[in-house]
Automatic annotation (TrEMBL):
Homotetramer. It comes from the Bacteria. It comes from Aquipuribacter nitratireducens. Pathway: Pyrimidine metabolism; dTTP biosynthesis. This is Flavin-dependent thymidylate synthase.
């Protein structure tokens, strides 16, 4: 899973600037740096008491490359602006997802309270062989239709959800926190989450980029049990 921060307008100061208009009216970004500890306290207060709108003024755009099934989970959140490459307008590339040896394969427990544990050597061999065979068959069928003059939007229907795609995702910090609360598994979370590992890998990379941009806000998010304001 590849994630790249493309551009941003995201600083802790953006949150403070937006929050203080409610009590001070128009101000300047320079004002928020005058008292760092007081500013950090305000961020913690906003997070704790769930005054969420100031966090919406910090915006990031990410480029994400991942399998289609990850994108379908991602876009269920309806919390960002998405633009994805189109199999109607361009020929897709033969890049498919094959789980690594480190990927857990066995589900233990029941929905809502389950975990995944390592698979056996035999299970990993089956997964690797089956996925590679399926991908090769699907790609040959795709190419055969294209060579016959079939439109790309029709030929793509044989391609599996494990095909890699790419998209731009533009999201504000408040929405990103909501996404992270659901798509990362952390023992210190107030509400437990059980994300599929592949989307969690994307979420972890997005979180690292965001934490570097807004360390005070990220620390407050963690301290608040990773509950989005």
């Amino acid at each position: 899973m590849d994630v790249e921060l493309v551009k941003h307008s995201a600083r802790d100061a953006d949150v403070l600037f937006a929050a203080r208009v409610s009590t001070k009216g128009e101000g300047s970004l320079a004002d928020v740096d005058a008292d760092p500890e007081r500013s950090a306290g305000l961020v913690r207060y906003l997070m704790r008491d769930r005054h969420g709108s100031p966090f919406e003024h910090a915006v990031m755009t990410f480029y994400v490359s991942a399998p289609l099934f990850v994108f379908r989970e991602f876009q269920r959140h309806r919390m960002a602006s998405y633009n994805e490459e189109s199999g109607r307008y361009r020929e897709m590339r033969p890049v498919f997802y094959v789980p690594s040896r480190e990927r857990n394969l066995q589900q233990v427990g029941k929905p809502g309270a389950y975990d995944f544990v390592p698979g056996t050597d035999e299970q990993h061999a089956v997964v690797t062989e089956a996925t590679r065979e399926t991908y090769l068959t699907a790609w040959r069928a795709y190419e055969r239709m294209l060579e016959a003059g079939v439109a790309r939007e029709v030929a793509r229907i044989v391609l599996p959800l494990s095909l890699y795609s790419s998209m731009y995702v533009t999201v504000n910090a408040r929405s990103l926190m909501n996404f992270l609360s659901l798509r990362t598994k952390r023992e210190d979370s107030t509400f437990p989450s059980f994300p599929q590992r592949e989307i969690e890998m994307v979420a972890e990379q997005m979180e690292r980029e965001w934490a570097a941009l807004m360390p005070v806000t990220h620390a407050a998010f963690d301290a608040n049990g990773r509950v989005a304001p």
